Amino acid sequence: MTLEVVILLILGLSSGVRATAITGAVLARQQDDAATQVECPSFTSANSPLSLESIVRAIVDGDWQRHRLVLQLVKEARTLELKRSIYETLWLEWKQTKKNNDPIKLLDLYEQLKLQSDIPADFQQMVYQTFISRSAHLLSAPLHAKSRCTDFPLVTTLLQLLKQSPQNLTSAIFDAVFDKVLTFETPLSVAQRLGNFNASLTQLATLNFKMMSRIEVQLNSSAHAVLLDNLRQLVKQWTFSE
After folding, report:
1. Separation between Cα atoms, residue 206 and residue 171, nearest integer Å
2. Which of 129, 121, 11 is nearest to 59 (CA)?
3. CB atoms within 10 A of CB 33
4. Spatial distance between the Cα atoms of 234 and 208, rounded to a whole number of angstroms
5. Rounded to 5, what percent of the chain is helix, strand, coil?
6. Per residue, what are the HEC states of 216-241?
């Protein structure tokens, strides 16, 4: 089944005009390079029914899981310029959807982008930095809470997902968390609140070790002592779990 048919079936397009617009846009990619270059001005025009923005919006249609279909379009595109335009238009659509501020959804997009072989390095880095920033913003919430009884379900979900991600990704997020939190909270209070995370023992140990290496802690003996005690407690839990 061709990509054109898949898109039309999933969208359930009943409007002949809308179907023609999307199908025509997709078919335009299959012309020779010269023809593709000719079509580019109208293809990317904001007022054109064949603009990339309108096509991506029609494909996603409020269901962000359909971004995978847009990434399929990238694979079908024949020029690097068009591939980049589709990536950038997808990202624009992402930013305009407020509910996509959730870093958990952004993680899904980031993982999908890593599977693409022709994604521009600067674009991938931009998505990466946005994910790190939004994840740090979410994960900083427990470190501002004075009570351990406060529940943070989105934080727990993100930490669960990060268990399956490369360690360097988690490490970068934790660094960003401390960069953010230690601007507003004292090292001692942050050290005392690391137990607010509903995280794995490995993640908790990483958090404590990372914070211990911070210059703010090295200059604060009380915070350093709390972190050492946190690690002792974690070692006891590891021993007990074995």
Report:
1. 8
2. 11
3. 9
4. 10
5. 75, 0, 25
6. HHHCCHHHHHHHHHHHHHHHHHHHHH
How far apart CA 135 and CA 174 sit, in angstroms, is 9
pLDDT band at 61 (very low <50, low <70, confident <90, very high): confident
User: 């501002």: which residue's tokens?
Assistant: 144
Can you give the length of the chain in residues? Answer: 242
81-103 tens-digit pLDDT: 888 888 888 888 888 776 666 88
pTM higher than 0.85: no
Residue 51 sits at φ, ψ, to 5 deg, of: -65, 150
Contacts 24+ apart (CB under 8 A), 94-97: 94/64, 94/67, 97/64
Domain ranges, ordered by start, for the chain = 1-97, 102-242
Residue matched to tokens 């659509």: 93
Residue type, 42: S
